[in-house]
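Consider the following input, taken from an annotated entry for carbonic anhydrase (Lysinibacillus composti).
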Amino acid sequence: MSALDDILSFNESFVKFKQYEPYITSKFPDKKIVILTCMDTRLVELLPKAMNMRNGDAKIVKSAGAIVNHPFGAVMRSLLVAVYELQADEVYVIGHYDCGMSAIDPHQMVDHMIERGISEEIINTINYSGVDLIEWLRGFGDVDESIQKSVDLIRNHPLMPKGTPVHGLAIEPNTGKLNLLSDGNVYLAEQGIAMFKSTEE
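Applying the prediction step yields:
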């Protein structure tokens, strides 16, 4: 039986026996926060538990390495939608130690693409079209620095409301310990910017 068959079989039972009922909530985050984190498998349940989050408490956006690659890419758009349309008042960028993105070798990844049937012609076309594929695939060396880079990009984004606290944290993927790297509230206070809080419920 394939993974898809397993999932669909379980889902049929899940719906039939109304196991979804404990998870019913609205589309608005109860704690008024949006989290940008990594897609690492170790964080699927660990991160919400380590933060005392339940279904409905937060919007969660995931990308490899919790990185904002482009100021006008899908990750940044998701954060802006959460803030402007879904009542999130704060942004949390939460990377983690022992992140796969810190060990990515972009040259090796391109080799793997070719091994799996992507032609060198396609690779060359992408490079000639103005995309530096190696740089686009490159990971990072230091997790803390990478988190701070994403935090800075979000804080200084021209479309992010200036009174939005943007926090940077790193989680230990084995213990769930959170290390605070940048407190968005302190940053706003130091900049003399009043923190925005929505009144909508």
